[in-house]
Amino acid sequence: MMTKIAVVGGGTMGVTFIRAVTNSGIVDLSNLAVCEIVPERREWLAAEFDGLCVTGDLAEAVDLCDAIYLSVKPQDLSTLARDSGAQSRLLISILAGSTISEVQASTGAERIIRAMPNTPAQIGKGFTAWTATDGVTAEERQLVSRLLDAMGEQLYVADESTIDKITAVSGSGPAYVFLIIEAMINAAVNIGLRPDDARRMVLQTVIGSSEFAQLSGEHLATLKDMVTSPGGTTAAGLQVLEQRAVRSALIDAVAAAHRRAEELGRQ
For position 80, which CATH number holds? Predict the structure, then answer.
């Protein structure tokens, strides 16, 4: 099974992948190479990861490895041209909005994984949906599953169009959650709580509620009812949220994100 991987793009998500797979012991740092075009960023990478092969030469990074983890910006896809050697490697692309056919046309690769990790992957708590072309072997799929597990949870989907749907939920989802957290903190400050205390209690409330929902296995409506007493404080707050159509707004937000993901895929 291949273990040598070239990370093309040493930005936040590239570094997230390097940290995840090395900290989990799946890939040794000596079996990784990273290609980064910004000199200052290369210097930082070399200092941050002792023993990591850091280069600005794409061909050099690709030649050293069996697989490529593509974490550049979508507009930079053309950097991985057909003459780079990518066509003979397993290619794992996390380019938002870039379809398998687009990656295939640009690189000539046949064995392609399209993956969509989200922001919490940076702390090993992410969710990554992925799909694969028919040319990807069972052994390679098993490897990819392990690599993505290192960043949190992963889900394989057979239909590539499902990636756009998941992007609208888990890919964009952290931003929705951050907005809700921000609003709750603002609300806490508005009623007289200190900002530091407000931030701490809201974050812990969200973390605790999420973990409780995950561990209990109960329906979310049941959990909501557990907190709500008739005529109580929670009921008063929920009534305002329902009156202001917060539930509908979130549903519409996910639908809008899904439509935009599909539009980007057609461009």
Answer: 3.40.50.720
